[in-house]
Design brief:
Length: about 240
Amino acid sequence: MEPYENIVIGNFLYSLGLTVGQESQGSVRPMCVNLMQQTPLDERLGDVMVANTGVTRLIEFKRKKNDSIKEETKREVLSRALGTDKHMLAISREIHWYIETSEAEGAFVSTVVPYIDFVDETVPATTIERFTSSVAKDAVSKVIDEATRASYEAYLALVSVSHGGLQGASGGLLINLSQEHGLRYVLVPDIRDLLLDHSLVREAYFERVQQQAMELKREHAVRSRQLSLKKSIDHDYEHEW
């Protein structure tokens, strides 16, 4: 029996983390990996969004056995919104992906194509393993320039608008792993902030959290000195008696 979408998504996210770890040399960049399935953002954007300074991917997962026409309808609406804009079509094929999974003679089968092309059976496809490896390499080694990131943001905005806009909100999480601080999760109140330039995200969230940690450390040091001084005074007082 083929696995349900949430099982595939969970294993994809785990595999992506493993692959990013293997590809990284030294500290790992902050990365946004958010599962939007069954949240208010699912209908407007997709199942999963992965983003950092080197990569942005919006991914939709579907089992081949699922005969719902929901995705075909969404793709058609998006196609009309893109029209003949060659630049936005190229951006779409770079960052927006469709992963279909199935079972064949007891084996797991995956087909990965650009979302805008998933109804075209002649489009070259890759596998979820190769796709995961490609995303991880970009996340570790690439750097997205400002003009490209602006195009990504414009495309994601177009996707959401074509599907009715981002009504409602959902928080997100930033993840950072470093030798100095280990693994850290930082809450982002609105997942749309994850579309910002990640140097700004780092400044707005991780550096703020680091500053808060330093302030707590200073407060703890002051309390420790006060307690030590009190013990010293009490000890001197006892000896006087």
